[in-house]
Structure formats: C-alpha cells, structure tokens
Amino acid sequence: MKVLITGATGLVGSELTSLCRSRGIAVNYLSTSKDKLVTEETYKGFYWNPDSQEIDMECLNGVSAIINLAGASISKRWTSEHKRKVLSSRINTLKTLHKALKRIDTTNISSFVSASAIGIYPDSLSEYYEEDDNRVDDSFLGDVVAAWEQEADTFTGFGFPVAKIRIGLVMSKEGGALPEMAKPIKYYVGAAFGSGQQWQSWIHIHDLARIFLFVVENTLEGVYNGVGPNPVTNNKLIKEIAKVLKKPLFLPNIPQFVLKTILGEMSYILFASQRVSSKKIEEEGFVFDHQNICKALENLYSEPGTTENDTTIYRKEYI
C-alpha cells in the first residue's frame, strides 16, 4: 500500500506518518516548502501550492489511498487575516487535490479520508452528539467545518469511498492544546476555564492516527468522530493534568471575560462544550488503546518503557 498524506509535517500528520512507516506502508507527502522534501524508497516528498492550485502530479503515482490533514492552525488569534487563512487553507487544499485527481485514472484509489472537526457540533452542556446530527454551531468554527466537509463531499463523484474524521481535542506532548494547558499548571498557576463544566471530547494522538489508518484499511465512508469513548469536563481534565504532573491546583477558575480580553474571539474554543460519541467507529471494530483520560495522560507523560502501552508510542519524524 502507498498513501498520499497532506499535512504530514503537522502534529497529527507526523504521528500518522510514523505509524504508516512502522507498518511498512509507503508514504508520499505534499509540502509547500521545497526545503522539506525528502526522497527515500518508501518515503517521498512532493511540492505543492494550494493557493495557486499548483501540485506535482508525480505525488499520485502508485497511490491507493489519500489522507488529507492540511489546514492552518485555529490556535492563533483570530484576526480577519487569520480567519481567511484558516478557511482558505482547508478549501484550497481540497480543490487542488480534486483538480489533480480529475487528470488521472483513479481506478486504483480505494480510499479518500479528510480531516474535519467536532467544532461543527453546537455548543451544549447537555447534548451527546453522534455523526447523524446535522446541526451546525453558530460560530466561526462551525462555519469553517461545514464548508470544509462540503468541499470534501465533492470527491464522492470519483466513485471511491470518501470519509471525514471529526477530530476532537488531541492529547499530545508534542504540540496542540495539552502543552498549553500543562504550562501554567507546571508553574503553579493552573486553573479550569469559566465554569469548568464544558465537555472536552479528547483523543490520544496515537489512537487518532490509528483511526485514520483503520478507515483507510477498511475502506469506510461517511462521517466518523475522532474522539475517545469517555469525554470529560474541563474541570476534570485540568485536575488530571495536575495529578499526572504532581502539581497542586489552588487558584479559582479563570473567568471567561479574562481570557476573552487576552485571546479575543479565539477564546471561544476554550469554552465551547461538545460531548461527542465514538460509538460509530467502535461498531466498525476499532478498539481504543487509550479509553480514559487519566491513563492516557500517564502514557503521554511517562518515560518510554515505563508503561504497558509504550509499544504504541512512535518517535515523531518531523520533515
């Protein structure tokens, strides 16, 4: 098998690339930086520029599956310019891939999987969301994810299975939200956000990489939530991070208006509540290695070789 991965240099892409290579799956990847291109027998980089719909067509040679992870980070201040970049980076990526696929025979492509996000689900403390819920959150993130998925749906016209993985809060020491949450706790100024009752549907990064590969290998189609089976409240998450770091929590919860003053509109992602189900992917036969937040955090913060699940951890190879 040979997989084409976009966004392979990002947090999830690096983990997925390592997982594929550990299983003997060849990887082609696309990069907007020519300095990051590597050419090995089973690991090759190709240049593209989605903003101008430029792509090296050689990237598709021998590919039987495509995994799209590309998109600008939402974890930067939401200026008008960055909002534009967040949306255009996701849409232009898919448009460029679609245009490229129209130029080749796609008979041998058996799977197309695109990242999405649980930010599409409306903010709620009481709802428990499954994939067949068609409501969209009335927010910038909700609008972005809806447009992102609509663009991904255009690939159904090729005839191969198309799947979308709605990613939750990714637990990784290498980047994303967890190091930012852990930093103030390490310096004894950690606290939950707002009421702390908002639901956080999290997933260990290795399980997320496994879900993408599972969907490819089983040629699944449709929407799947990329979250673990046991969401927790923000209060619980912060307490468990403090516990694994062996640090006390003694400050009151941080008021919403304080973080909005500091972060602007982006603070929305800290207070949005989405309790999301993983039942659908589990019914397909996927089994999570990390089902509970306490064990997941212990796994992430332990030294290699000190946990029974350390065989599931792979060194990141940033390209």
Automatic annotation (TrEMBL):
InterPro entries: DUF1731, Epimerase_deHydtase, NAD(P)-bd_dom_sf, SDR39U1. It comes from the Bacteria. Residues 254-300 form the DUF1731 domain. Residues 3-221 form the NAD-dependent epimerase/dehydratase domain. Pfam families: DUF1731, Epimerase. SUPFAM superfamilies: NAD(P)-binding Rossmann-fold domains (SSF51735). NCBIfam families: yfcH (TIGR01777). Belongs to the NAD(P)-dependent epimerase/dehydratase family. SDR39U1 subfamily. This is TIGR01777 family protein. It comes from Pelagihabitans pacificus. The lineage of its organism: Bacteria, Pseudomonadati, Bacteroidota, Flavobacteriia, Flavobacteriales.
